[in-house]
Amino acid sequence: MTDTHTGGCRCGAVRFEARGEPGHVSYCHCADCRRATGAPVSAFVGFPAAAVTIEGEALRRFVNGPVARSFCGTCGTPIAYTDERLADTVYFMLGAMDAPGQYRPSVHAFVREQLPFVHMPDGLPRELGHSVPRPQTD
Who's near 18: CB < 8 A, 6+ residues apart? Predict the structure, then answer.
C-alpha cells in the first residue's frame, strides 16, 4: 500500500486523503450500517484522525448517539463514520476509496445481526459485537 490513501464520493464533490497505513479494515453486519448504506454488509478502513483530510462543501453529517456518519449532500454517497468513543480514528467506507481492492478486511463485526442469506466463507474471525473495543460508559 502507498503512504497516501485517497477516495471520494460518486459525483466528486467530496474528496478525502489519509496518510500512513490503515489501522483497521473490517466488515460490519449491524442493522445501523445496513440502514446507513443500503447494503447487506458494509466494509470500513480506519485511519488515525490526525492523518485524515476531508474536503468538499457538500459533506454532510448525521449523528446518532456516539456515531457520526458523513455523506455527500449532492449524490448521497456514504463517506465515513466516527465514534466519539474512538475519537482518534476515522473509518472510511471501503467502497469510497479510490483503490478499494488494496484494503483486505481482517474481521467480521456484529455477526449476530448478519442476514441469513449472506454467506462469506473467508475464514476471517467473527465478532458478535464491535470488532474494535469501545470504552465502557456509565
Answer: 4, 5, 6, 47, 51, 52, 53, 90, 92
Bridge partners (DSSP) listed for residue 92 = 45, 80
Total domains in the fold of the chain? 1
Q: Sign (positive/negative) of CA torsion 75, 14, 108, 65?
A: negative
Q: Is residue 126 part of a domain?
A: no
Residue 119 lies in a domain: no
One DSSP character per residue, 120-132 reads: --S---B-SS-SS
Q: What is the pLDDT tens value at each position of the chain, 138 positions in all?
A: 559 999 999 999 999 999 999 999 999 999 999 999 999 999 999 999 999 999 999 999 999 999 999 999 999 999 999 999 988 999 999 999 999 999 999 999 999 999 999 999 999 999 998 888 777 653
